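Hey, can you fold this one?
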Amino acid sequence: MQTHLTKLEALNFFKNHRMIRLTFFKTDQKQLPNEYYITGIKTNNRKVVKKIYSDFLKNIEQYICANSGTKAEANDIFQDGLIILFNKIQTDTLVIQSTFGQYLFGICKKLWLRKLNKIKRTNEINEGIVFEIKEENVTDIEIIEREKQKLYEEKFKLLKPSYQKILTLYFEGKSMSEIAQIMGFKSANYASKRKHQCQEYLKELIQNDKRYQELTE
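Sure. Predicted structure:
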């Protein structure tokens, strides 16, 4: 399961904004051009990310809370939706034929319905409180990749700080010689051995989680 540290950076970027509380929300407010939001995400513009939260989080909270969820779960789903968008923007696979808000809602709705199915909350879905969704344009593969990414991030945090630092340096493109010098190892060969040990331990943590089997079936 290949997951790059740059995706961890994306996660941390959006986490900085997840606890924003809205003072008002208008479902009929005029949205800014799609390119405003897309460029803001692409350039890590915090002002734009804050605007995305203030413009679109409330609708998603209402939908999820009306369908067996909580505000905390809505925030998690919203963040996952943004990270999927971030990944699509970075790989130039994003195609939006409706509004940015409709597109983001479509992603979050699909994420939530998948979660409901997994945890067997099968109450009737209430569709009456949201605007029409013209498209979702997100594949199940992309959603599964996001779930793999979250599992990786969760297990990465369980590593010893020294293991995290070695892997971080490696994913940043540092050579074994540079890692040896930074970590105080005796040689590049020893740094390579320690890096391999860290990777194998992380791999073991991931593969021993029952969610890994569900995601790789």
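The radius of gyration is 20 Å. Let me know if you want another pass with a different chain boundary.
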